[in-house]
Amino acid sequence: MIQLLPDFLNEIKPVLKENFQKFLDNYDSEPFRGLRANTLKISAQKLKTLLDFPWEQVPFADEGTYIPANASSVGNSPLHHCGAYYVQEPSAMSAVTLLNPREGDCVLDLCAAPGGKSTQIAAKLKGKGLLWSNEIVRSRASILLSNIERMGVRNAVVSSESPEELCKRLAGCFDKILVDAPCSGEGMFRKEPQALEHWSREHVEACAVRQLNILESAKLALKPGGVIVYSTCTFSPEENEGVIEKFLNNNPDFEIVDENESFGMKTMGGAVRIFPFHGGEGHFAVKLRHKGMSIENDSYFYDSFGASSERKGSKKQGKNQRGKVQSNEITREEILDFYDSLFVNRPFGENISQINGKIILLPEALKKFPSIERCGVLRAGVLLGEGKKGRIEPAHSAFMAAEKDECVNIVDLSLGDERIIKYLKGEEIEIPSDIKGYTAVCCEGMTTGFGKAVDGTLKNKYPKGLRLL
């Protein structure tokens, strides 16, 4: 039995009221695990037929199911490698459900690593509009980028910048913002009992100060009339209701929106609290709407990123972002020829940029944004390839972002085909001899990577760091 700290219990008892004993009675049950279908790649209905355990719907998102306690190797399945699903704690899906992104929205996920909520937002956007995913810790931002790529997101920007600086530079750019704030993690105690050792009142208080600062920064990046969803995975009233009360006192031009969701328990007239007896480890989420007045800030816009940074490709020599001469610039015509050799109808658009030898296809929505050059950007849009010794080497992420029918050459393997496991281990596989050149490898119709077809053999290009051991 998990021994909960008396100070922690005293803090949440007034919140739970008549449900306090129910909370205690449920606390030593098996922690919840879940996954969410990535509808950029597969429908929930089709995924149900491919999983080796029954689908048990979570209450927090239409695309989510519980993972049974006896299920194993979920992270090693080819379905995971091709981005068919994201393994996610069930109640964590609630924040994006509350945010309700729509096609064409510009959405900022301000504290985004490891990427569960960002990829959930991306699926809702369906490739339209823009997702900006930020994580201040660089190592965690790299994990975020890897998950964005695995899930096939083509309209995202991934950055590693402080919320304060990022929101100043992107003032008034976003329709919707998610602030899944760093917290004391009380909702993770069942999954990670060692987290109890690090819990203290001082830590809770420090988290609340930081959370309010992040929320105050987030409002600067919001368009008038836009919405912010604030969420945590902690039960602390100080980090949840307390932060929101202070924010609303400081910002009377914001109000709580009650979306009348059926999950969890209501607080503050619209915020939602989720406890283990609701079917998830624990979450707090509240939707805040700006009433439409101007949002004061002292930030400023730069010149358009598209105008200032896109290489026209008319010369072999150009300047990179730091002004140094680049002698190996690839012409736009060469890039487009290469693009057309891999994909049909240029599925990622033609907003081309070259940065340090990398060929990037930027989201069209960025043309309406201020410059992103000082925003800690790790990746914007889709990495098509990289110039190497007078040729272009395709990027794994480009194939992951493509749909099967958008690829020129395709090998589509079933989940039961032993060749998909061999491919994921980095081995060569046999394919029809009439396929030549760079070829997308698909599993059940979903792109999983690529290789180079030569005389009936596919030379493996699956990244070493992602391979099955």
Topology at a glance:
Blueprint: H1 6-16, H2 20-26, E1 34-37, H3 44-50, E2 64-66, H4 78-81, E3 85-87, H5 94-99, E4 106-109, H6 116-125, E5 130-134, H7 138-150, E6 156-159, H8 163-169, E7 174-180, H9 201-218, E8 222-232, H10 241-250, E9 254-257, E10 265-267, E11 271-274, E12 283-290, H11 305-309, E13 318-319, E14 325-326, H12 332-342, E15 352-355, E16 358-361, E17 377-380, E18 382-388, E19 391-394, H13 396-401, E20 410-413, H14 418-424, E21 429-430, E22 437-443, E23 446-454, E24 457-460
Parallel strand pairs: 4-5, 4-7, 5-6, 7-8, 20-22
Antiparallel strand pairs: 1-2, 1-3, 6-17, 8-12, 9-12, 10-11, 11-12, 13-14, 15-16, 16-18, 18-19, 21-24, 22-23, 23-24
Helix pairs in contact: 8-9, 9-10
Number of strands: 24
Sheet of most strands? 10 strands, mixed
Estimated share of beta-strand residues = 15-25%
Secondary-structure class: alpha+beta
Low-confidence stretches: 297-327
Shape: globular
> How far is the first residue's CA from the last residue's CA?
35 Å
